[in-house]
Design brief:
Shape of chain A: globular
Radius of gyration of chain B: 18 Å
Number of strands of chain B: 4
Strand order of the largest sheet of chain B: 1-2-4-3
Structural class of chain A: alpha+beta
Number of helices of chain A: 3
CATH architecture of one domain in chain A: 2-Layer Sandwich
Strand content of chain B: 5-15%
Radius of gyration of chain A: 23 Å
Helix content of chain A: 25-40%
Strand order of the largest sheet of chain A: 2-1-3
Largest sheet of chain B: 4 strands, antiparallel
Shape of chain B: globular
Oligomer: heterodimer
Distance between the termini of chain B: 25 Å
Largest interface: A-B, 29 and 36 residues
CATH topology of one domain in chain A: Ribosomal Protein L30, Chain: A
Largest sheet of chain A: 3 strands, antiparallel
CATH class of one domain in chain A: Alpha Beta
């Protein structure tokens, strides 16, 4: 028996494997502050309070994390907001970057 | 540098003669951090990385130019910075303190970069390194005075 010329279609679930690019509005970017030996602890605490509006305790927690662990993830935001925060932190000459949260 | 009066809008500082002169000398060094020094991202995995880095560098350059203008205006304004018999008086608003802290830290960090970003204490001072070391330490000392004044005023949330 000859095979049919039309392709066989099997009903089932279609799995899409394509990676959708993260849009600029999607929260998926980490704002990280890195340790350096030049910025004073009191200054770093002040900057966190001003830039994020955090209470003293929270700002000190992140400052100590930077000091003791070498870095602190300050917030997870959309691309635009993460860029904004990095700019604000760098205005104060803190070593801050944004990284994709994979 | 001593806080002598505080109102809702302003903080008034007294500086001794030498202290006032040193502040002016240190501030004249601004800006010290090299342009395009700060990376937006470490991993290099951001979309439009180069374009975003360029925009950040431009924004920081604009902000430094703005701070420079504000600094020149402050030092030239006799209502805000003037000589008295026994030194200087410096009157700062809360926004003034914020940009002045940015200026002082730029001088501190920029001088540290020029010194080779030492991890610990600088071991050997010489004629080349002394001015940057001096600027780094003085900028830090003035910075701490401003932070102390904010602290005492209960400015924080």
């Amino acid at each position: 028996m000859a095979a049919t010329a039309t392709p066989e279609v099997v009903p089932g679930i279609v799995h899409e494997t394509e990676d959708k690019p993260k849009s600029g509005l999607e929260p998926g970017y980490l704002v990280i502050c890195w340790n350096d030996p030049v910025n004073f602890m009191q200054y770093v605490t002040h900057v966190f309070q001003v830039v994020f509006g955090w209470p003293r305790k929270k700002a000190e927690f992140h400052m100590l994390q930077v000091h003791e662990q070498g870095k602190s993830v300050l917030t997870r935001e959309s691309m635009e907001k993460a860029e904004h925060y990095v700019h604000q932190l760098q205005k104060y000459s803190l070593h801050a970057t944004m990284e994709r949260d994979e | 540098m001593k806080l002598i009066r505080r109102s809702d809008a302003k903080l008034l500082f007294h500086l001794g003669q030498r202290e006032g002169n040193l502040l002016v000398q240190v501030l004249k060094r601004y800006p010290c951090v090299p342009p395009a020094h700060q990376p937006l991202n470490k991993s290099g995995l951001l979309a439009n990385q180069q374009e975003n880095q360029r925009l950040l560098d431009e924004a920081l350059a604009e902000q430094r130019a703005d701070c420079k203008k504000q600094l020149q205006a402050l030092l030239a304004d006799p209502r805000r910075f003037h000589k008295v018999d026994i030194g200087f008086r410096l009157s700062l608003s809360q926004p003034d303190i914020e940009w002045l802290l940015q200026v002082l830290n730029d001088i501190r960090v920029g001088s540290w970069i020029t010194l080779g970003s030492p991890e610990g204490k600088l071991e050997h001072l010489n004629a080349t390194t002394a001015p940057d070391f001096w600027a780094m330490e003085l900028a830090g000392a003035f910075q701490m005075e401003l932070l102390q004044a904010l602290e005492e005023g209960g400015t924080y949330p």
